[in-house]
Amino acid sequence: MPKKNVLIVTASIGSGHIKAAAAIDNELRYVCPQANVSIVDFMSPETAYLNKLLKEIYLKMLDFVPALYEFLYNFTAGEWKCSSIQGLLAYFMKKNMADLIKKYQADIVICTHPFPCAAAATLKDDAHNNFKLFTVITDFSLHQIWLYKNVDMYFIPHEDMYSELVKRGISEDIITVSGIPVDYSFTKEYDKEQLRQKLSLSSNEPVVLIMGGGLGLGGVKYALEQLELLSQEMQILVVTGANVSLWSEINAYIHHSRHQIKVWGYSHNIDELMAISTLLISKPGALTISEALVSGLPMILHEPIPGPESENATYMASRGAAIEVKKEDELRDVVAALLNDPERLQFMRSQAKKLSRPDAAAKIVNVVKEYL
Predict the structure, then answer these.
(1) 5-29 confidence digits (pLDDT tens)
(2) Do 191 and 180 meet the contact criterion of CB atoms below 8 Å apart?
């Protein structure tokens, strides 16, 4: 019997969609060695120049007019208002998707971003395209932009989204509550004392991890300045992502700080940094949140990208795993209060673990395996 071809299509808008795709890719290669697995960035210039241009417009909008992005996100939340946007996306992108499916002879297409999903779903209107289409929703809130009539299976982050999908006309038979897939390394049991020694950190002071996602957004420098106002001794770990100028700024800042600060760019040891941290200060990207949940790490969430990340923060705060900071001048007070409240920290750790889905990638692959 010939090998089946699985095409995972993601989008390099931030790092979350890419990381989710990589987690599925790793699990598939391990569990289903009989499959040919390929992973493609739908927003790369190699895939299509227009897609890359759309990505650049999106990033510029976040940089200079975030309020416009928030307006568009909220305006298109309803089914009727969003359908025209979905149709446009599908129209402009379906040829790129058709080329990919032909190139990789895909039997199964797995999308971790709504743009490729729009294109793939439209292609399935043609009876000749009989590939299976799976959508992995990589946000904790549901937006209409994820929903298409030709999807064969939705993988969703939590049970609360299940009823939302059903209300919007999605059949219960094609919904799997899987969680958002994270790399298997986050499920390891680390020797925390050994890790602290490896990173030259003291065992007697709290460790605060500051992250701004793959793009280094999310008020990283401001968070550092807020912590500088606290007299309490602490060790600070900063991850600046792909933001090279921010990395340089933080390295210059280190020399004048009262705290011990260590800085990384795009780091491949986030699992270790989360394992030894007391709390996380971050913008509320869904993948960062998912990794923190599996790590049992209490979160302070601030500076969201308007729209989905604001909803991510509110959802996590309502479940007790995070504190949502809406006014930036409150950040230092929230950190000080939390570091002096071990019972609250322990409660948040336990809530994070309850909400975590360490086996998300395995659940997704178990379903995919049935189609192989």
Answers:
(1) 999 999 887 778 999 999 999 999 9
(2) no
How are beta strands 207-211 and 235-239 bridged, if at all?
parallel
Report CA-CA distances (Å) from 288 to 79, 198, 244, 296: 28, 23, 20, 12
- The structure's pTM equals 0.90
Is 146 a residue whose pLDDT tops 50?
A: yes
For residues 197 and 199, give the distance between their C-alpha atoms in angstroms, rounded to a whole number: 5
**Low-confidence winner among 49-58, 69-78, 90-99, 101-110 (lowest mean pLDDT):** 69-78
Signed CA dihedral, 246, 277, 352, 117: sign only: positive
